[in-house]
Amino acid sequence: MAVVISTRIDKFGRVLRVVGHRFWSSSLVHSVSETKDEVETIARIINDHPFPVQPLQPTLKRHVSSSILSTMFVENVIGRLFAAHANGLKAYEFFEFCLHHPEYSPTSDAFEKTLHVLARMRYFDKGWELMKKIQQLQPSLLTLKSLSIMLSRIAKYQSYEDTLEAFEKMEQHLFPGKKFGTEEFNILLRAFCSQRQMKEARSVFNKLHSRFPPDTKTMNILLLGFKESGDITAVELFYHEMVKRGFKLNSVTYSIRIDAYCKKGRFGDALKLFEEMDRSAMNDGCDHTSTNAPDPIRTPKLSVLGRENDVVRTGDGGVTGGVMRRCARRLGRWGAG
């Protein structure tokens, strides 16, 4: 038996908490356990197989029946291979095997993990091949995330020219019905910034900003890249360029600069930025502060400035709690000293 706590919204817009009980039969528990064992078994068989010395498909035909080939099963097997850093070609062989079964419909989770495993091990030809197949079978699975997975790895392991060529290839051949805009431009810039390739990122910006109008998020991605590269002078120069270009600064902009100062031990400058951010919030009539910070210094609201799958993300609504809490602790120690 399990206690279930959920929320419901009634017709008046009120949030209601629902507390109930769920009774699981022994047969259901056994079924779940059995499925987990099957996932572990198949993942181990794939991981231990001597592919590509010997073909993997015959082994999969012997051990993977259509009766167990569910969406969750495929996602879990690929998830195990992903976590185990298995050979990307083996994960691709398994996913391709599943695609040939009419009972199976690919999901974004299975596709993106397979693509990530291939790109992580630099099997870019197979990555392109996979994306082309998905475009033909289920083009809705080609999203900004899959674009980001490929570009970030190509930027890491290949040249500046290769990365630009990949971007153009995706725009012209893999996403032919979609008009690329600022979001896609931001992903391209983030691919370079996440690798601290700021010379290349700046070059891309100068080359393409007239075609893809930048927004505040674009500028914050670049500002974060300069911060991650440890060049506080470049951070301040680019910040002043943002102001000169007329971009509206937000709490993400402030948090990047504050963290840059904290990492360099310039806590007095960081504290001034806290105060400047407070004044800016009051003038704009916006609430950038929250009382749930672990330090007396007021800190901005949480948002999505961080890393996921080695890809730097930058949000517009606030700043990461981790950055602000870290800086707040440092500022607290600096003030106490």
From TrEMBL:
Residue stretches of each PPR repeat: 215-249, 250-284
Family matches, as NCBIfam families: PPR
Keyword Repeat: yes
UniProt name for this protein: Pentatricopeptide repeat-containing protein
UniProt cross-references to InterPro entries, sorted A to Z: PPR-containing_protein, PPR_rpt, TPR-like_helical_dom_sf
PROSITE patterns reported for this sequence: PPR
Family: Belongs to the PPR family. P subfamily.
Lineage: Eukaryota, Viridiplantae, Streptophyta, Embryophyta, Tracheophyta
Keyword list, A-Z: Repeat
Pfam families documented for this protein: PPR (PF01535), PPR_2 (PF13041)
